[in-house]
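Q: My labmate handed me this sequence with no annotations at all. I'd like to see what the chain might look like in three dimensions before we decide whether it's worth expressing. Could you predict it?
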Amino acid sequence: MAKPKRVGHLVLNVRDQEASTKFYTEVLGFEIATERPGFGTFLTCGKIHHDLALFQAAPDAAPVQEGALGLNHMALQVEDLDMLKEYFQRLQEYGLTDLRTTDHSMTKSIYLKDPDGNGIELFCNSQDSAEEGLAEMRRPGRKNVELVLG
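A: Here is what I predict for the chain of 150 residues:
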């Protein structure tokens, strides 16, 4: 059976291309691969041509609605728990107060919203291998708990 190799990139329609580009670069640390004002910004984590694109939405585009059909959140992996803690501090300094932290046991995560209300999860793995992480995900009785970072 045919199956995809990996998720290649994500494209978000945004209300304000400039404000969203600033958020994703200055707060989350993406680099601009190329930018076309009024059309879109292509962002990279530094290894491939682009990981995320921000397209300027039409002026009458409906806002993101929590719980509606569509994207619930995207997950961005960070290197380790120390970097996750660094992000937690940076997000607070940026003025983001509606942060949720969770220890999923196979990952540790921070949940936040971008300027348009799109959900973002910043996470680091808790296991040394993908196989161990999958085994933990499938472990009967596994429960999420609050993660204390501050």
